[in-house]
Amino acid sequence: MNGEDASYKEMLAPLKLAPFYIFFNHRQMLSELRQQGIREAKKTTANITLDETLRPLWKLTYYCGILLDWCRPISENDPRFWKATRYLSIVMSSFLLLAVFTFELAQLFIGIERSLNVHLIILNIVWCIPVMVGVVIQEQFLRHRREFLGFFKGWRRVEMEITKLNPDCIMCKSRRMHVVMYAIHGGLAIAGLISIGIDIFNRPDEPYLISHYKSVRDLVPLLLICFVHLAAICLTLILLTLSDLVTSFTYYHAGLAVDCLERDARIVFARCFNTEDRLFITSLDDNNQPENVCKDLPKSCSSAEIRVSLQLIWARFDNVDQLINQANSLFGKFLVCSQGVSLFMITALLYSVFYYLGDALRLRSTGLILPYVMNFLSLGFRFISSMLISAQLHRSVGKFRMSLNYLLSQHWNQMSKQDRDLLRSFLSRLYTDSLVACPLGLYNITPSILLSIIGLVVSYVIVLLQSK
């Protein structure tokens, strides 16, 4: 019996521990599900701010010693040695850009005096003008450093206010567009530096190079000359990328903020004016149903709640408008300079492509026309992508106006007179003072402006070809 009892107890032992195993497994399963839910919530509710979008550019310009803090303030705990090194690097980069620009400008004037046709100085223009724009961009970021810091601080505050207005509204959910733009600009910069380095070694006597003068070639190694030119071009490309992406991403995130306000307005009207519930209540009244049935239905918001919600949306929109007006003034100086120079260079490069196209087809060689084609495609992409991304603000404001017009017409009879007057005043505000990217108040960046620019470029190219 004792042996049978012992074996029986051994058989029951796992069954006694089974509740504990089930309990611990249940807790582990709940913990895993909870962690999975937290991860999914972080994935779905993460809002990509403008600071996070511009952080790669901020780190690049800050740690490479090109600019001081312009998007985020410098940490006060940085050692003095690193601060002094950074200041020295900024001074050296500025001196390098000024020196190279002075040389290229002098060579451009010499080329204009000696050349018989425009196409002979196109490469001098391509080498001179971007360096000048780089000097202007660096000077603007250094001179207006405090204004830039104040602007991005104000933008962080506006993003927090819009998020508090509706915590479920996410302005920017995906990094795809930002990553693609960074990758394309980085790829274009690397390809440009490689092609320029090869061009310097293959044709060191070109007039736009320091090695054009034989005395310099005999005195200074060609590798050092190549390094000087590539360093200046690298700084210029970084500053041009900074000018394009900072302005376009700022206007793009402003458009996303307007989209968020548009969704908030739709949510307010959907919550306060549920058309299906009101039709159902009307049908119950027609059928002489008891009053307590109608009381159980969801009630709409009061007129005061609607008015407060619309006033909050209007206030957030005014804050975005104020920052965009500040951005138009702050970014406008180097943005107008950068886009104007890009337009001029695109016209000159397209003219050179058509000028050498006949010789390239006759000789069946792309060596003569390839540099012009590559520069034209690179500049064209940068210009068009910057304009289209900045035009997101114009599209978002247009969508916002259409939504408010639709909501006003859809719920006109359900709104009180005060709510109707408030919404009509808001719409009048949107029509009379449209929120749009407008550098220095000179021109509005909209998708339709690209058609005007293309027509302008084609007209100038035709005039230049006729003067050939």
List the helices and strands and how they pair.
Layout: H1 2-45, H2 50-63, H3 80-114, H4 122-143, H5 145-165, H6 176-202, H7 214-219, H8 222-272, H9 275-286, H10 291-295, H11 303-330, H12 332-363, H13 370-390, H14 392-410, H15 417-432, H16 449-466
Helix pairs in contact: 2-8, 3-4, 3-8, 4-8, 4-12, 5-11, 6-8, 6-13, 8-11, 8-13, 8-14, 11-15, 12-13, 12-16, 14-15
In which range does the helix fraction lie?
over 70%
Beta-strand share of residues: under 5%
The coarse overall form would be elongated
Q: How would you spell out the order of helices and strands?
A: HHHHHHHHHHHHHHHH
* Rg on CA atoms, Å: 32 Å
Structural class, by secondary structure, is mainly alpha
Average pLDDT works out at: 78
The largest sheet is: none
Number of helices: 16
Low-confidence segments, ≥5 residues, pLDDT <50? 7-27, 29-45, 276-299
| Count of all domains | 2
Number of strands: 0
Distance between the termini: 118 Å
